Amino acid sequence: MIKIVVGSKNPVKISAAQTAIRDALSLKEVECIGINAPSSVAEQPMTSEETKLGAVNRIQYCQQHTRADFYVAIEGGVDQFEYGPATFAFVAIANQKNVSIGRSCNLPLPPIIYQALKSGEELGDVMDRLFNTDNVKQKQGAIGLLTHGLATRESVYRQAIILAMAPFIHPDLYTG
């Protein structure tokens, strides 16, 4: 059995890491725990660069403070693109030797939500207020609310983790 440490106590992130790595490595079981790993970026990262840095900072913290076979960090963020504002996540995965950085797909954000984020609010709080939900960031997330559940925060994180696992699935192709 392998041990996975996730740089968050958020059950959505832990579950996504557990199922994605288990499936990517064709394992029956994995041990997966979450720890509070600081991102050292804003609560609501507002650029791609800041979001990626948050994931990298979390993975480094996990490596320095725990022992595991794999470390996973997920940092959600927002940016203004040429086609409008969107939210996404960066994923960092590491073992003892290698680090892989991946990114989720983008979810376009309505202008009213993006303006609230620019004013200093966090996405989960804005979504809870607009949709009258409670702690949606530990459930389906903005993704689930804006897609009527066709995609969820966990499904998007799971996909991003599986893609970022490619260098660990085929290490011979990624060395050199």
The tally of helices reads 8
CATH architecture: Alpha-Beta Complex
Shape: globular
Structural class: alpha/beta
Given this structure, which CATH class is correct?
Alpha Beta
Rounded radius of gyration (Å):
16 Å
The separation of the N and C termini measures: 29 Å
Mean pLDDT: 96
CATH topology type:
Maf protein
The major beta sheet can be summarized as: 6 strands, mixed
Amount of helix: 40-55%
Overview of the molecule:
Helices cover 43% and strands 23% of the residues. It is α/β, with parallel strands linked by helices and 176 residues long. It has one domain (2-108, 151-174): Maf protein (Alpha-Beta Complex), CATH 3.90.950.10. Strands 1, 2, 3, 4, 5 and 6 form a 6-stranded mixed β-sheet that branches. The longest helix has 18 residues, at 48-65. The chain is globular, with a radius of gyration of 16 Å. The two termini are 29 Å apart.
Topology:
Layout: E1 2-6, H1 11-24, E2 30-34, H2 48-65, E3 70-81, E4 84-94, E5 99-103, E6 107-108, H3 111-118, H4 123-131, H5 141-146, H6 153-164, H7 166-169, H8 171-174
Parallel strand pairs: 1-2, 1-3
Antiparallel strand pairs: 3-4, 4-5, 4-6
Helix pairs in contact: 1-6
Write a short abstract of this structure:
This protein is an alpha/beta fold. Helix content is 43%, strand content 23%. Helix 1 crosses helix 6 (153-164).
